[in-house]
Amino acid sequence: MATDQPLTSGRVGAPTAPALSARRVTGGGGPARVDNGNPRRPKGVSPYLLLAAAALFWSGNFVLARAMREAIPPLAMAFWRWCAAAFLLLPFAVPRVWAQRRLVLDHLPVLFALGTLGVAGFNTLVYTGLQTTTATNGVLLNSSIPVAIMALSWAFLGERLTLRQGLGVAASLAGVLVIVTRGEPGTLWDLRLAQGDLWILAAVVAWALYTVLLRARPPGLDPLAFLGVIVPMGVAVLLPLYLWELADGARMRLDAATAASLAYFAVFPSILSYLFWNRAVAEVGPSRAGLFVHLMPVFGTLLSVVFLGEQPRLYQGAGILLIFAGISLTLRGSGP
User: Fold this and answer.
1) What is the pTM of this model?
2) What is the mean pLDDT of residues 106-121?
């Protein structure tokens, strides 16, 4: 995949010349990589392992959000999830934000856009959609994220998709369809777009924009400082929406299950997944990273077998093999 190629200022949304000059393009004979100046990942930790872990945590987020939809209204779910994440994150992030305050102040517009799209927008849209659509529809529609990222990467960053990579995406998407349709693709004709599905599609667009916009984040900004800025911004955007939900009469049920769910939401799909995703996108580029969203139905299947006692099915194995084959094919297609 031709990811992390030099960005051209002639493209809409391309970073400005100062932002480009602040970055280094590295890599010998392999694909060029843009160094945003962030601390390098620890040796031995593959960006693809980070992407797989992020997908695993987000799989649990989808399943748990659907299960808790009666106990926690969608805006409350998003608001308190990120409040809890901020509470855990800010003691570590604030000193780093203060040390880089000039860099933060110089890039407030792009940071606010990232906080709105990635923190407030995506999660709220997903939680709202899962109130009225099935988990199957949610996973299926969410699987269009890699395609949306590639389209936006081409439009805004000038990234090109090779034939091999296109075939890899098609194979991986076919594997998703095999899993969510239980090996009967004809059931797709029976799917009907409900209001919740439209919310999920809006979330897809929000996450694709967030992922592509990560390329314009401040060069050299510490990863924890980055989260320490965009999370409070996202919470600030969510606050009036949450107050509106309260005024409308929606209330969160307070019990142990709710507390445990919010704790999971705050730590795994929020802090850890975002750190992993942001770091990996900086290394491998948005298009290649986006394909790992297709691992979510794989992990959803495995979690159901391990924790719910469901019996594994042949179609699930076939779908998983197709997904891994597609990812492998795409990762090998790194040429222009």
Assistant:
1) 0.76
2) 96
